[in-house]
Amino acid sequence: MDVGFRADASVDIGTGHIMRCITLANALAAEGAHCRFYMRDLVGSMAQEVRSHGHAVSLLSGQSPADAASGDLAHSHWLETSWQHDAAQTLEASDGAPGLDWLVVDHYALDHRWHNQLRARAGRILVIDDLADRQLDCDVLLDQNTQIAKGRYDRIAPADCLQLLGPRYALLRPEFGRERCRTVRRAEASVKRIFLFFGGSDLPGLTLLSLEALSTIVDAEGIEIDVLVGDANPDQARIAQWCSDRPQAHYRKRGADVCELMARADIALGAGGTTTWERCCLGLPSIVVAIAENQLEGARAVADAGACDYAGDWRTIDRAQIASAVDRLMRDPKRRRSISEHGMALTDGRGADLVAMALKQDE
Fold first, then answer.
1. pLDDT for the residue numbered 312
2. Which of 118, 135, 152, 281 has the highest CB neighbour count under 10 A?
3. Mean pLDDT over residues 126-141, rounded?
4. Is the pLDDT of residue 206 over 80?
5. Measured between alpha carbons, how far is 94 from 162 in angstroms, rounded to an integer?
């Protein structure tokens, strides 16, 4: 089976779309599929990360911000060119290769018009979405979020489209499913370790803000804290300095074993998005701050499901609110236990296998 992926990463977009596509590609490759990623050559594209997993990459170059500004979708600017130019480049990049059995599209800047153009190259299309904010032309639709109202996609996706909805389909790396079976949360015990991660780029600067908010708690109570920092984080130097000043603070970069760090932690503080499901899978009690408009609805929905504490969003959150949210959760073992149980009930870490199985059955 030949599978193409159209997704991007950048300082603006973040890394989550590429990371979840890599997870699905790995699951498909384990079953013998050949996977190729079609990605724009943006700053922070993560092309090397894709290659490191053994998948081929075709970079689409030549940005035109003026064309992107003319786009009519909420995230058109993510492409840094027009959807027409992007479709033409993707078609050209795949020309001469065997026809794709499946094309996986994980991109808020692409809608049914782009999908339709690529029908000439792809037998079937899977769209991964979170927003339900544009028309889609696909054979399978994946939305791994909890806030899915009945009929959410009925008017924007084809009537015969197979819809894979909810966090049971969350695209998590297999180690999360394995670690879940070994993890035993002791919510009654005191909090001794915190895991902090606000995504690959963290443009709002919430990593540094959170560390400043937690200085008193960490210093006074001797709590260990693992701080994961993405390559595109503009505050890397200051975060590293904060950690170097405290023996119990550990500065972690990409390549760290995130699953192990989460499994060792007692609570977490971080963004919404894909890491939400990683934390839920492991039953890690978490405080979530939305770091972008497209995370607001999802973060609130996870909190409504009892699977996290929602502290607010990047526009209004401050040090006092962060410190208060962390202190509250630290001192409430019943709340930590409840979040852990509700989170683990949402996803078991087998989503990538379920989605891969759906594609293979529908070949």
1. 97
2. 281
3. 97
4. yes
5. 26
How many CA atoms within 13 Å lie on the side-chain side of 182? 10
Least confident range of 191-195, 206-210, 228-232, 313-317: 228-232
In the predicted structure, residue 309 carries a pLDDT above the cut 80 = yes
Choose among 361, 356, 277: nearest CA to 5.
356
Every domain of the chain with CATH number 3.40.50.11190 lies at: 2-172+349-361
175-346: which CATH topology? Rossmann fold (3.40.50)
CB 50 within 8 A of CB 69: no
Residue type, 143: D
Q: In sequence order, what are the residues at sequence separation of 6 or more whose Cβ sits closer than 8 angstroms to the Cβ of residue 220?
A: none
Query: Average model confidence (pLDDT) for the chain?
Result: 93
- Assigned token pair, 197: 């991660």
- Would you give the DSSP letter of residue 191? P
- The reported pLDDT for the residue numbered 36 is 97
Domain with CATH 3.40.50.2000 in the chain: 175-346
Buried b / exposed e along 60-81 (16+ C-beta atoms within 10 A): beeeeeebbeebebebbebbbb
> What does the block give as tokens for 303?
């909190």
E strand or H helix at 332: none
* Mean pLDDT across 194-200: 95
In sequence order, which residues have a C-beta less than 8 Å from that of residue 224 and are 6 or more positions away? 192, 193, 194, 248, 249, 250
* CA 150 to chain centroid: 23
Per-residue pLDDT tens for 59-88?
A: 999 776 667 667 899 999 999 999 999 999
Judge: domain 2-172+349-361, CATH 3.90.1150.10: no
Q: What is the DSSP string of 5-55?
A: EEE--BTTTBSHHHHHHHHHHHHHHTTT-EEEEEEE--TT--HHHHHHTT-
Q: CA 44, CA 274: separation in Å to the nearest integer? A: 18
Please choose, from the candidates 293, 297, 299, 298, the residue with its C-alpha nearest in 3D space to the C-alpha of residue 311: 299
